[in-house]
């Protein structure tokens, strides 16, 4: 017998990660290729992708590494970061994430792999969690209606500015910002104000609104509470004067401080904004964190972003859903009031659960402790002869040390503590949940002071003004009192997760949303303290590992896209769109072409495109889409000629929103360039291009990417996202920058579009790891299998449902649209019926009625294996047979499994008088009883929820007994 020998080098190499990321193995790929009619992946993509856009060269990326090797590399990068005690403040604070939340939310794929809850019947768990978040924010701010999270404090304040202008009595005038506002917030507001013609005035309002400003007219006022300096002052006189002037007043408030201080609503504020980061969410070098906004009742229907409300299901039982403007930017487009699409749901869930975990008493204790440390810190400094600037403060102390600020900061640094330099004479020190007595002693020593904590504690009163102490209650609902034991909290989190459908259960075939594998190896480093506990304004030398990771990821994304420079600052795809359009605007203005303000957008484009264009100060002109799904070339050429001298940019999604590779994209780009315009290629569908074609090479000047789609950051139930913007060299001088971290962008940049210098830096290790694990060849193969999967699904479903659009050789790109309109016309069965019936089969529905009403857009991604693809196709084929039963009259058109879907366990356990069996209802073909996913509610009445807007936590009767 001859011994079989395997070379050591082959054994060391192991299984490539790409084989784990890509669902279908080589045998499955061969079967799929045979179905589609090709012999190899290369043959398929050669036929599907137009020759004019194909990349001639392979991606120049480092070779793929194994999972253990990549974790070791990331560990090496993490070790280059220095995590010091964070006493910088400025809206970012040390916090302690309760381990039960860390393990069971942040590290739990049942929570982090879920999609935005647009299918509410299978999202009841996270919708309840978001309702808890909204209740927490509304209670603490003293305002009745809160949204389900915004991106960060800076952009929330900018949204408040836009809301104030929209709903206020004063239609002209200025937006007045108090000088003690967080500097990054002021900068983001400036970025957002300038393109829309809003004048921002920053002034010291501690003595009131200056008369010379009042005379100019004021449509909105922004106040910080407590101030960036830590000062706590009574805002009522300024608010009253602002209201006399007809202004809408926004207060940017620290939620932890509001457990002790009179809330903004009781002070008279109309809007409250801020961040929930210090409620158990790691700083992560700046994000992701959930911003918040709460408003007076009359503004509820104008609230930007998402709002969770209460409706009823088909049985009249309570059910949660997204209400009102859940996708207004997709529906109203250039008339949208905001371009928000991605929120920060996962982080909002964490913050809300932090409040559930601690309850009002626990939050108050944390706040009192932070305040007490600040009070003792100030007392010790005063006793040592150091001037403390403010007499009233919450957790931040400002000390004046003429000419010694640098010396004090250096001395604190030697003791492992980061303080904030306000100017050469002034130092800020912020206390938080993680502050200890040892930290106070180290800070005193840095100032050259010695003090006795015990003696100071016995003699020092608190520093909160008596007239501003909170007297109203908050978080009275039982949910904030029930789960004090870890057992109870664990079971609550599990109960909510079990009500949801996420990628850990099965395929989410959402077109345009790219719900692919979020590998555990990619996720692991996010919760390492070396990445999670770093303050975004820490000295750059303390973030050497982060900055290397950021630079490498920017360079690799530039290589993938063919652009010259990438900025990672935008913390959502919508913010990436805005950043890219602002760069185009700045470029034209620098060239003296201020008249170039027209943005051409195909009618099929993502609605955020149009909303972002308006926010960037542009005028949207819509270009028709042809019957084949491509841009109507004749209409485009006519619009280019009509607006030749005013043309700023064409925004085009590629592959198109209709799921096809348009053959003439190069010609389209050339025509726009010839007319003096720029080309914005929306990167939403980049998963069909990586390794095959580069937008920066086939005509694009600028693109945003979605790291939460193509590059494996999970969707988190609706966020976090990262929307980097890539540009060619001539636009690079106009990328975002940041006032507190000069290296975050060019000096000539347009200003920050996110509060933190590198946006949601805390989740960038995910995409860095994905690219490193896959290498250039792995990324290309992933794209090819994504295209194969979409074509396989299209071919299998085509005999049963028309495939609406195809490109060259009858092929689709990475997604396909099936047309239900003929079936609806013939049978009355709607796209909603099919979507809800898929729940009974154990699936999340594809994207409904976008970009074409009455259709389903299906994107399988490369991560779904053949078994799952076939299970989905067989479910859709079985549903087609069910539709036929309705059409033939075998099932009543108003009482059938499709119209009544989804079916809950309760609905089939009671009396049954349907014209179909219980088994047909809940165990249709292929559904195994042992593996059945049971939706918690029946079909939800959306219209009822919009007519009866309720924004409060779960009803009390749910907790009786």
Automatic annotation (TrEMBL):
Catalytic activity: N(6)-[(R)-lipoyl]-L-lysyl-[glycine-cleavage complex H protein] + glycine + H(+) = N(6)-[(R)-S(8)-aminomethyldihydrolipoyl]-L-lysyl-[glycine-cleavage complex H protein] + CO2
Keyword Oxidoreductase (UniProt): yes
Residues in coiled coil: none
Gene3D superfamilies given in the database record: Aspartate Aminotransferase, domain 1 (3.90.1150.10), Type I PLP-dependent aspartate aminotransferase-like (Major domain) (3.40.640.10)
GO terms assigned for molecular function: glycine binding; glycine dehydrogenase (decarboxylating) activity; pyridoxal phosphate binding
InterPro entries on file: GcvP (IPR003437), GDC-P_C (IPR049316), GDC-P_N (IPR049315), GDC_P (IPR020581), PyrdxlP-dep_Trfase (IPR015424), PyrdxlP-dep_Trfase_major (IPR015421), PyrdxlP-dep_Trfase_small (IPR015422)
GO cellular component: cytosol; glycine cleavage complex
Record keywords, A-Z: Oxidoreductase, Pyridoxal phosphate
One GO process term, biological-process aspect: glycine decarboxylation via glycine cleavage system
EC number: 1.4.4.2
Chain positions with N6-(pyridoxal phosphate)lysine modification: 709
EC class (word): oxidoreductase
Function: The glycine cleavage system catalyzes the degradation of glycine. The P protein binds the alpha-amino group of glycine through its pyridoxal phosphate cofactor; CO(2) is released and the remaining methylamine moiety is then transferred to the lipoamide cofactor of the H protein.
Name of protein: Glycine dehydrogenase (decarboxylating)
Organism annotation: Streptomyces caatingaensis
Gene this protein is translated from: gcvP
């Amino acid at each position: 017998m001859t011994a079989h020998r395997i070379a050591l080098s082959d054994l060391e190499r192991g299984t490539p990660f790409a084989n784990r990321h890509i669902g279908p193995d080589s045998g499955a790929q061969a079967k799929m290729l045979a179905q589609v009619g090709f012999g190899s992946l290369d043959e398929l993509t050669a036929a599907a992708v137009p020759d004019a856009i194909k990349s001639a060269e392979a991606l120049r990326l480092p070779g793929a590494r194994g999972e253990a090797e990549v974790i070791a590399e990331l560990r090496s990068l993490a070790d280059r970061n220095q995590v010091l005690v964070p006493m910088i403040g400025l809206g970012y604070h040390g916090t302690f994430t309760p381990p039960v939340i860390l393990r069971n939310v942040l590290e739990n794929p049942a929570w982090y792999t879920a999609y935005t809850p647009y299918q509410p019947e299978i999202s009841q768990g996270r919708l309840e969690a978001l309702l808890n978040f909204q209740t927490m924010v509304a209670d603490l701010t003293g305002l009745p209606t809160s949204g389900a999270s915004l991106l960060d404090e800076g952009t929330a304040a900018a949204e408040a500015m836009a809301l104030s202008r929209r709903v206020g009595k004063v239609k002209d005038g200025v937006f007045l910002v108090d000088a003690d506002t967080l500097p990054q917030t002021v900068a983001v507001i400036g970025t957002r104000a300038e393109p829309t013609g809003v004048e921002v005035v920053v002034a010291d309002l501690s003595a009131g609104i200056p008369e010379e400003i009042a005379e100019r007219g004021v449509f909105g006022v922004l106040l910080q509470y407590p101030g960036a300096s830590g000062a706590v002052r009574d805002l009522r006189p300024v608010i009253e004067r602002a209201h006399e002037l007809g202004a809408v007043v926004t207060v940017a408030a620290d939620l932890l401080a509001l457990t002790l201080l009179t809330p903004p609503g009781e002070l008279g504020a109309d809007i409250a904004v801020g961040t929930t980061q210090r409620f158990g969410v790691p700083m992560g070098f700046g994000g992701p964190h959930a911003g918040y906004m709460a408003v007076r009742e009359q503004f509820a229907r104008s609230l930007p972003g998402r709002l969770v409300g209460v409706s009823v299901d088909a049985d009249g039982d309570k059910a949660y859903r997204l209400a009102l403007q859940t996708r207004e930017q997709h529906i109203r487009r250039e008339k949208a009031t905001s371009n928000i699409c991605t929120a920060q749901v996962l982080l909002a869930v964490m913050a809300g659960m932090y409040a559930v975990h601690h309850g009002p008493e626990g939050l108050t204790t944390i706040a009192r402790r932070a305040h007490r440390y600040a009070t003792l810190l100030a007392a010790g400094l005063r006793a040592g002869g150091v001037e403390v600037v403010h007499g009233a403060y919450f957790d931040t102390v400002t000390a004046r040390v003429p000419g010694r600020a640098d010396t004090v900061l250096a001395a604190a640094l030697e003791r492992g503590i980061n303080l904030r330099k306000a100017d050469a004479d002034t130092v800020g020190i912020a206390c938080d949940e993680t502050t200890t007595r040892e930290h106070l002693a180290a800070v005193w020593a840095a100032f050259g002071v010695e003090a006795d904590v015990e003696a100071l504690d016995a003699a020092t009163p608190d520093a909160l003004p008596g007239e501003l102490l909170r007297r109203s209650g908050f978080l009275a609902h039982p949910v904030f009192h029930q789960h004090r034991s870890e057992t109870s909290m664990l079971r609550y989190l599990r109960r909510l997760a079990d009500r949801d459908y996420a990628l850990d259960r099965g395929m989410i075939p959402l077109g345009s949303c790219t719900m692919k594998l979020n590998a555990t190896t990619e996720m692991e480093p996010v919760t390492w303290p070396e990445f999670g506990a770093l303050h975004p304004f820490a000295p750059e030398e303390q973030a050497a590992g982060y900055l290397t990771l950021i630079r490498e990821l920017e360079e690799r994304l530039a290589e993938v896209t063919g652009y010259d420079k990438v900025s990672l600052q935008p913390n959502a795809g919508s913010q990436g769109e805005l950043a890219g359009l602002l760069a185009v605007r700045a470029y034209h203005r620098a060239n003296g072409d201020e008249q170039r303000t027209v943005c051409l957008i195909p009618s099929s484009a993502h609605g955020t495109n149009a909303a972002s264009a308006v926010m960037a100060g542009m005028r949207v002109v819509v270009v028709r889409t042809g019957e084949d799904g491509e841009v109507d070339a004749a209409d485009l050429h006519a619009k280019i000629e009509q607006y030749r001298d005013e043309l700023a940019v064409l925004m085009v999604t590629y592959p198109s929103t209709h799921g096809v590779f348009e053959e003439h994209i190069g010609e389209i780009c050339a025509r726009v360039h010839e007319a003096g315009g720029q080309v914005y290629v929306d990167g939403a569908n980049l998963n069909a291009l990586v390794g095959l074609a580069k937008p920066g090479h086939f005509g694009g000047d600028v693109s945003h990417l979605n790291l939460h789609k193509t590059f494996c950051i999970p969707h988190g139930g609706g966020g976090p996202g990262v929307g980097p913007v890539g540009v060619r060299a001539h636009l690079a001088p106009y990328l975002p920058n940041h006032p507190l971290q000069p290296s975050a962008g060019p000096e000539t940049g347009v200003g920050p579009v996110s509060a933190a210098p590198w946006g949601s830096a805390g989740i960038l290790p995910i995409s860095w790891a994905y690219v490193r694990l896959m290498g250039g060849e792995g990324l290309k193969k992933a794209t090819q299998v994504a295209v194969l999967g979409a074509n396989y699904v299209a071919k299998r479903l085509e005999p049963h449902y028309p495939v609406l659009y195809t490109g060259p050789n009858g092929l689709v790109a990475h997604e396909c649209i099936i047309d239900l309109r003929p079936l609806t016309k013939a049978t009355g069965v709607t796209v909603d019926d099919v979507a809800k019936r898929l729940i009974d089969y154990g699936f999340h529905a594809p994207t409904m009625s976008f970009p074409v009403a009455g259709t389903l857009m299906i994107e399988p991604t490369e991560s779904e294996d053949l078994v799952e693809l076939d299970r989905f196709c067989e479910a859709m084929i079985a549903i087609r047979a069910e539709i036929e039963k309705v059409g033939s009259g075998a099932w009543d058109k108003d009482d059938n499994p499709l119209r009544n879907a989804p079916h809950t366990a309760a609905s089939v356990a009671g009396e049954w008088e349907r014209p179909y069996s219980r088994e047909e209802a809940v165990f249709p073909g292929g559904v195994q009883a042992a593996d059945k996913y049971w939706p918690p509610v029946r079909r939800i009445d959306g219209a009822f929820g919009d007519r009866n807007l309720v924004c409060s936590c779960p009803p009390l009767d749910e907790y009786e007994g």
